[in-house]
Design brief:
This is Low-specificity L-threonine aldolase. The protein is of the alpha/beta class. Helix content is 43%, strand content 17%. A hairpin with a 6-residue loop joins β9 and β10. α8 packs across α9. The structure holds pyridoxal-5'-phosphate.
Length: 348
Amino acid sequence: MTPVDLRSDTVTQPTAAMREAMMAAPLGDDVFGDDPSVNALQERLAALLGFEAGLFVPTGTQSNLCAVLAHCQRGDEYITGQLHHCYRWEGGGAAVFGSVQPQPLAHQADGTLALADIEAAIKPDDPHFARSRLLALENTLGGQLMPQAWLESATALARERGLARHLDGARLFNAAVEQARRLGTDPYAQARRIASCFDSVSVCLSKGLGTPVGSVLCGSRELIARARRIRKMAGGGMRQAGVLAAAGSYALEHHVARLAEDHARARRLAEGLAGLDGVQVQAPDTNIVFIDLVGEARHKAAHLLPWLAERGVLATGLYRLRFVTHLDVDDEGIARATGLLREFFQRG
Ligand SMILES: *Cc1c(COP(=O)(O)O)cnc(C)c1O
């Protein structure tokens, strides 16, 4: 029995067609700028999002690091959210490697940052303070779609105050696909619309898009030239990386629209858990379902994941559990996960 692996959308295996695209990729040495498949991916995503240039990097963490260090100097700061990956989940890299201080803000209930909080965090030019240089946002945030109107106002505020704007769009296409569904428009157009608020955008290829490795940072030619230097310092200058980049180009063509299926399956999982005692489920915007255990159900929390794993369903968390849908989870997998979760909580 193949497990239904809902731990993350990073666990996907490349499809047969993606592997073929990788095998067929023309290769060169990307540190010399010679790899046609890397260049094609960078140009394709940059054009798609409305930027001059792109940079293929091994991970989303390195992409955010290159972005923050390309925007900021030593002694600058970036304003961001407490829950944002580039503050919370990247080992403090911008501070460690770049001497760039984060200024994290508390989130509102809908995941946004209050404009008044952003405004108040922008420091005056005074030697007491670090220089506020960058606003770094994230979409989706924990699977939540950030409102377009808020992205526009927050980034407009930053621009008026002379700050650069970076988007951690690890799951940009999940956001774009859901925004497109709500508006009845095209996902690529929505991706471009979200990106248009920012000076740089980082996109993960190895999450919902289903490639084995890689992210792309997009921005102006000048910014990307600085980021390329930082990528080299960080050890991210790869050679025949086209074998990986080809998977990214394949995914941008074939794996964007289908994210809607992952979102539908996440909704089905959440709906299937409605009404269980001690289980609170949020309706997911995209491909991540959180369930919170409350009251008596918390006593059983420690048994849940091992019990599920024995029965071929993998997830993460304890009192707050996370289930992520992706390319390698089908309807049968969702039915299995839903059935087992119902059984576990109904057993008493
Ligand atoms: C996964 C993720 C990253 C980092 O990606 P890695 O490739 O694991 O380093 C950055 N930001 C967000 C929002 C992510 O979900």
